[in-house]
Amino acid sequence: MRQPLAVLADDMSMTGVIKVFDRTGADYLPVVDEDKRFAGFVSKARLFEKYRLQVAQNRDIYDDE
Fold first, then answer.
1. 16-40 b/e with 16+ CB inside 10 Å = b?
2. Per-residue pLDDT tens for 18-41?
């Protein structure tokens, strides 16, 4: 086993999580709760998929049509 490149807190903002993924280049990162107990993993692919969906839903605000 290896130490993770970073650990995410379960109350981190999406922007903070994206910055950690960008900085580390990791594909998956562990998430811990306020007591530092393992809560699960976040996948970079899944995170960006959700982010793209969110942006697409708000896209009409920025359209020039």
1. ebeebbeeeebeebebeeeeeeeee
2. 999 999 999 999 999 999 999 999
- The torsion angles phi and psi of 36, rounded to 5 degrees, stand at 65, 25
pLDDT band for position 59 (cuts 50, 70, 90): low
User: Per-residue DSSP letters for the chain?
Assistant: ----S--EETT--HHHHHHHHHHH--SEEEEE-TT--EEEEEEHHHHHHHHHHHHHHTGGGT---
CATH class of 8-60: alpha beta
pTM of the entire predicted model: 0.76
Domain spans of the chain? 8-60
